[in-house]
Amino acid sequence: MAGSLVSNEKRLISAAVVLMLTASLCELMIPYYTSKIIFAFTNKVPLEVFHQHITAYAAFALGFAVFAAGRGALFSVINNKLSRALRYRLFGVLLREPASFHDTQEPGQLTSRLTSDCYAITRCIATNVNVALRNMVQVIGGGIILVRLSPQLSGLCLAIFAALWGFTVLYGAYSRHSQRVIQDVLARSTGTAEEALQSVRIVRTFATEQQEQDRYKSWLDKLYWVGMRQSAAWGLYLVAGTTAHHACLALSFLLGGSMVYQGLITAEQLTSFMFYVQMVTSSSLAVCDQYGAVMEAIGASERVLQHLNDQPAPQIAAGQVPPGGVFRGEIELRGVWYTYDNRPDAVALSGIDLWLQPGKLTALVGLSGSGKSTLVALLQRLYDPTEGQVLIDGTDLTLLDAKWYRSRLGVVSQEPKLFSLSVRDNIAYGCPFTPTQEEVEEAARQANAHEFIAQLPEGYNTPVTDKLLSGGQRQRIALARALVRKPTLLILDEATSALDAESEALVQQALDRAMQPADGSHARTVLVIAHRLSTVRNAHNIVVLDKGKVAEQGNHAELLEQRGIYWGLVRRQQKGLGPADRDLSPRKKDPPMLTSKDWDYGEAGGPLQSRDSGVSGVGVGMSATSNPGVIEGSTAAQSDSPKSLLMSAPASPQPPALSSMGSGSAVNSLAMYSLSMDEDVDEEMQQLGSSSASRPSGVATMPPSWRNTPMVGSSSSSSTAHSSSNGSSNGTSNGNKQAQQHLQPGSVVNDIVPMKSKIGGASGVAAAEQRKVQQAEQGAKVQ
């Protein structure tokens, strides 16, 4: 490929070579006429001949100046053209390298390839080769003239030149190796500096300025010592070259003078010979210098040339396009295995079988390292499976045109990258069609970004800089960039993780609308990678990955019934426990199913009113006592949500100590403890699996350990409680009667009514909460 770059400029290069040869020939004639002019007076040549020598000297000198200037200008143009073409070609090659290549390369090193390495190549072609060829012509031409002037003297000089050339070859080999090492170290140092400067805020936050400076210095030290060794070699080469040059001149004077005294040659011939010896030795040194420079350039450009000569990555190779260019959005993974090239011993995915239905929302859930990102990368065809197939509408993805396929994708990553373009250009970036301003603004509205974009200094024409936008704003622009493409497959990798609750709700509504294109031609497939329960619970299919395998899949209720990995993740997230909670909710806690927007809570037994359902009951104001299992009904405290009622008591099978409480407080605590004894998701899914119509309204069973538990109330009921603890049926009856005295209309427990959320009491946690309240009420009555 490097050869093709040179061949593209062959006309300019040919013209430059012609000018170079002409200039060299003119320069070769200058020493000849110089000696003629000097000895014109000694030889007493006619004045006309003297003028002829002067004229010829001036013509060749002028010709040399003109042609040399033309040669330099053309080679300068060639240098600029080659530099532009080489960087453009290399940049294209690097962009098309497979993802596995970029997994092992640092951006700073690749940037160094584009800058210093490309400069070394173009300098070599346009400067070093140019100078070397010019001096080579002078060495050859001058050598021929030397042989004609004196074969004896020229033989001696050629022997000295041969020794110099041998030393030059050795120096060139060393320079090639040394320069390759220098370019590698320079690339590493550039990458280190670029990394630190891009993360300067983190560096300052952790006060590691000196540490980063020392890390950069370690590369500079390596560069310094490699450069010192190369400088030492260069110094030895200069000593050898200068010695050869002056040795040749000194021996030519010595032997040439003897030959003049012997009458073998004339003084004019010796003078001309010395002029050409000076030219040939200088040109030889220049050729040797350029040879070393060419070897350095070859060493510096080896990796660039390797990239240029690589075959195009298969991911961008042209493939087939379905008839009509229609992508329905059906995706199937059959027995997919994948192992990263740089980690052959670690299997990222093993035996994945998965079907993404058109128009359906599929969620990927799993702990870090479970293979979620790798699976999404396969769907984007950043990698090809090691084994198995990824089928797009029944066609193997490797057979499809990658550019066409990716134009049908919309991807929003967890850490979106925006370019140094205007906001509008960032939203329209990569769009397969040219979107209108209205389409751009509509996509921004769907992503809840239009309002803050309109407030920017230049609106949609505002250039994006690092400090212009917050993280959430960048993510919403990235979401708009995905939506404006009108993709068939929409991939969201924690796309709403940086949004506040209100923005998330608006964006989620937009995503729900985006499931179907405006023209209604075909369904849109949505794949979500998420950790937050609120994001994945409404998915049509939830896929749980564990150690590169599909461990579970189904909808939210089905996975909870399985009591597997997903059940554990949800349980931990609801309770806010352990690493799973941090993995499920890396930024903020998962919002409750019912929030303060859904219910109003009264003070200490005041009315409880649903804003949407209109169901009223009794607000249970409470606060935890010193005993974590005891909650007093007399304290005027407010709960954040009905979910907090479920989480207020520990999931312990032992009843709380109630002996020190009044009867009304004891009944209230008993009801609230019954509410918390469902073991959260455990009990919820058991009740979801049974019909709510299978028992009368308000009937709930007590936990087995509580069925014969005595009620300890006030002094008037203490004897009844003791008798029931002895197992007497009479005592039990009295205990029930005594408890029922406290369940009169208007009491805290007796007035608890089933709660209905605004999404209905038949699904999700809201349904379970309704049943838990019923269970608490009936449990108190049973006692």
From TrEMBL:
Topology with respect to the bilayer: Multi-pass membrane protein
Domain ABC transmembrane type-1: from-to ranges: 15-296
Protein name (database record): Uncharacterized protein
Compositionally biased intervals (Low complexity): 644-661, 713-736
Residue ranges, annotated region (Disordered): 576-664, 681-783
Keyword terms, alphabetized: ATP-binding, Membrane, Nucleotide-binding, Transmembrane, Transmembrane helix, Transport
InterPro entries for the chain: AAA+_ATPase (IPR003593), ABC1_TM_dom (IPR011527), ABC1_TM_sf (IPR036640), ABC_transporter-like_ATP-bd (IPR003439), ABC_transporter-like_CS (IPR017871), P-loop_NTPase (IPR027417), Type_1_exporter (IPR039421)
Biased segments, Basic and acidic residues type: 580-591
